[in-house]
Structure formats: structure tokens, C-alpha cells
Amino acid sequence: MDKKEKQEYLFQEAGVWKAISRMAIPAMVSILVMLIYNMADMFFVGQLGDTAQVAAVSLVGPVFTLMMAIGTMIGGGGSVLTAKTLGEKDFEKVKLCSSLCCWSSIVLGLLFSAVVLLFSNPLLRFLGADSNTFYLAKQYMTILALGAPITIFANGFGNVIRGEGAVKEGMVGHLLGTLVNIVLDPLFILVLRMGVGGAAVATVLGNVTAALYFLVYIKKSNTNLTLQPSYAKKQPSAIIQILALGLPNMINSTLAGFAGAFANQLLARYGTNAVAAMGAAGKSTLIISMIQMGLCMGVQPLMAYNYGAKNMPRIKEVLAKLSILTVTTGLSATIFCLFNSRMMIALFLKEPEALALGQQMVTLLILSGPFLGLFYIGSNFLQASGNALLATIVSMLRQGVFLIPLLYAMNALFGVTGNIIVHIIADITAAAVAIVLALQQYGKLKRSCETP
């Protein structure tokens, strides 16, 4: 049985628990690796003891997040469409999809580079750079912008190959890129004393490594994917469908950044300890949502493939078992965070008052932990079904429609505590809406299968 046949078997015939584990575990590892990857630059720059350089990395964070979000949009949409068209046995469309994802990554990467470099000065002023940080932030951002086409391709295509069932290969590519970044960071930053410039170079070289791995995979593997531009030229308008399907991923990442910025603005009124405590509590509880998100993202191609094949019994079994797994995992992670909250907060904070406040915040933030998996199941199923509109709406609910407006109302009524409680309200409400819409979409497919 060759690679294609093994992947088809995993999608169509393998036991559901086996298929879920084969796809979810590598995806979760990739998500956690990306979390470490995003923290590496700031950690090693922090070892220099230069607050201005740490601030420079932090200031450019939204630009880097947007760059990664573009890759996630292309890769998320490409992954869904690849799996869905494989289920429909439309192999020519799979080639069209992969080619479009490759070349749109390069084109959008070049556009991103041009815009950031052209408007770097006003952009840095908007982000809050001052005389102490401006030059450092510009150096860091310029290097990242120059590497944008490679970074967007690496982030996007790692998800596309996951849509074909090659979840392990996607994980390996991201893992290699992260390891190269982590190894080069101390060399460039601490040994060669390149500071933030060295951090940016290490980040770009890490993505070059991941991109090369994916190129080798496409060339040497027996795969339905292709990078040949001739396929993209046949129907370039199909990129609209890919971007529409991937838009929820981008919106979710972008809104999360805005929500964090607004929350910090409000918390700043209560002093530095409140802002620091919220940041530490957020990082300490992030593992709850990341694990559940990784589970659902990993299984999404399995749902999309069987949605395309209209295999209702298998879709039903996947959804039922994935629900059990995510809720159980979410509850376990929540309990872990509850009993280890002080230890986790102490990784980031040392000042006693801030440490105590951070621990209190963790106790509240984890209350929605077991329910987050339901939100990710609903949103990922809507994407897998190809319903870009509903998937986009759901992605806007948690971090946007519910969270941002309520932040101001709850903060005015309850202060710091209200700032925390609003996250719980937004999480649970968004999860409920996502499940209702996913059930409606499931019913629609079921009725279409029953219609002669």
C-alpha cells in the first residue's frame, strides 16, 4: 500500500479512534511547537537585559501575527478544500488548489513585504515605537518583512499537506523550522551580539528550513499535490474560495490580538501589576485552548473528506468521538491548571502582589476551559463543510462580537474582575452558537443524502 492508498484508507476505512489519533496528535504537537516558536525571540532577547530590545520585539508582534495569519488563511482554506475534493475524487481540483496555495503565498508575501517596508515609519509610530525603540523595532520588522514570502509559504503549505492526510509531515516541517530558530537564536542574539536583528534572521532561516522540507516532500512523495504554476493559471479565480474558507482562521487570530490590546488598555488603569498578571494568566491558561484547538484542526481534514464523500455514518461517529475527546481533554487541562496555577504564574512573575493577582485570574479564566472544545468542533465542522459564511461568522463571535464590546461594559461595572468574567461569558456563548449552527449544517447534509 503506497502513501496515497494509506492516506485514503485513513480517511475512509480506518477505525475512527485510530484516524482521530493519527491526525490529531501531530496537529497538537504542531500547535504547541508554534506556541514555543512565537515565544523564542522574546525569551532570548530578554537574556540581554536590554528592556528596549524586548519592547521592540513586543511592538512588532502584531505585524508578525498578521503575517502568520495570512499564511494560516491560505493554509486553512487549502487544507479544507484539499480534503473535501479528495472525498469527491476530484484530483485535478486538488492540484489546482495546491498550486494556487503555493503561488498566492508568494504573491501575498511580496505584497506584504512591499507595504510594510514602504510604510514602516508611520506603522512603527502607530504601534507605539518611541525614540528608544524605533531603530530596534525597524531593524527587527524590516528583516521579518523581507522574509515574508517564505514565512507565509511555510506556514500555509504545512496546513495544505495536512489536508491530504500527511499530518505527520506537516508537523515535522514546523518542528524543524522551530528547532532551527531556537538553535540560531542564542547564537545570533547572545554569541554574535546581533540583538533583535539576529532574532529576526533566526526566524526567517527557521521558515526557510520548513519551506525546503515541504518542497522536498512534494517532489519526492507520491502525492496528489503540485506546485506547478500551470495549474494555478487554469483557474486563478478559485483562490477566492480558498481564501473564503481560510478567512475564519485569519479573523480569529487578528481579533484575538485586538482583544488583548483592548483588555490591556483597560487593565492599565489599575496599574502595571494588573496588566502583568493578566498577561501571565493568559499564557498559563493558553494550553487549555491550544490543545483543544489542535485536536479539532487535526481532525478537520477527516471531517471535510467525509463531508465531500457524503459519508454520514462516519461523519456522525467522528463528531461524537471528537466531542468526547475534546471535552475530556479540556476538563483534564483545566484541572491541571487549577492545581498548578501558582507554579505556572511564577514562571512569569516574581512580585508577590502581581503573583497573587495572577493566580486569582487563572482560577476564573479556566472556568470556560471544558467548553472551548465545543466551540472549536462547531467552527471547524462549518469550515470542513465548505460553509465559509457561517464559519466566518462563528470565528468573529468569541474574540470579536461578544468579547470586545462586553469588555468595556463589564470593566465599568466590575473593574478587574469584570475584565476576567467577560472572557468566560464570551467563550461559553460562542461555543453554544457554534454548536447550534454546526448541528443545522449537519442536518442539511443529512437531508441532502436522504433525498433520492
Secondary-structure map:
Blueprint: H1 3-12, H2 16-46, H3 51-87, H4 91-118, H5 120-127, H6 134-146, H7 148-163, H8 167-191, H9 195-220, H10 229-234, H11 239-267, H12 272-308, H13 312-339, H14 341-345, H15 352-365, H16 372-384, H17 388-450
Helix pairs in contact: 2-3, 2-8, 2-9, 2-12, 3-4, 3-6, 3-7, 3-11, 3-12, 4-6, 4-7, 5-6, 6-9, 7-8, 7-9, 8-9, 11-17, 12-13, 12-15, 12-16, 13-16, 16-17
Could you explain how this protein is built, in words?
The protein has helices at residues 3-12, 16-46, 51-87, 91-118, 120-127, 134-146, 148-163, 167-191, 195-220, 229-234, 239-267, 272-308, 312-339, 341-345, 352-365, 372-384, 388-450. The protein is an all-alpha fold. Helix 3 packs parallel to helix 12. It is globular and about 60 Å long. It starts with a helix and ends with a helix.
